[in-house]
Amino acid sequence: MSRVVVALLFAIAVALAAVGAIAPRSLALEEGPTPSPTPPPEVCDASETDGWDDRVYVEPYGEADALVRPLDSEFQDLYLVVWDIRAGTCVPYAAEGNQKDGAIVLIVRDGVVEFTAEPYFEESEAFATWGRTHGDSQDVEFGTTVTLYPGDWVTMNDQMWFTLRAIGGESAEVLKAVWAKPPIDIGGAGGTRK
Known about the structure:
Radius of gyration: 19 Å
Largest sheet: 8 strands, antiparallel
Order of helices and strands: HHEEEEEEEEEEEE
Strand content: 25-35%
Helix content: 10-25%
CATH superfamily: Jelly Rolls
Distance between the termini: 29 Å
Structural class: mainly beta
Mean pLDDT: 75
CATH class: Mainly Beta
Number of strands: 12
């Protein structure tokens, strides 16, 4: 019995040491697996993007929190994060969190956000669509800035450059669901790992 207890305590100590030695990093702030081409000319001012990643708070922050690999999808993960973008902050095109190989859905929960998108590749067939909670939807023309209010949403059917800017003097809360190629191994088929 004491051998089992000692072995269990050792395993717990090793696990805690491993967790403490690796700082958690949100997938929402990390780039996807495809190398990035050169981003388009930035629409954000330098004052809005300096230290942008220190002014965007992401929850959940764990590497694989709120992440699932569906049983019928060996090569795609689905995860959800909440971005709290402080007032006056613009997430630039080249932000690592915007580099995803797959579809993205954004929903503004609070505040006002400007959204601008550009094609990731010249020959891209990707497109973005935006809409209101109780209204019609329409395609977003690349290079055009769309102002999004609480309840408004944007869908992107594939990888593209996009930027978000919190305007109006208050922070914005944006839900971000991503269906993308997995940058990490979550182990097994499906389920989440914390």
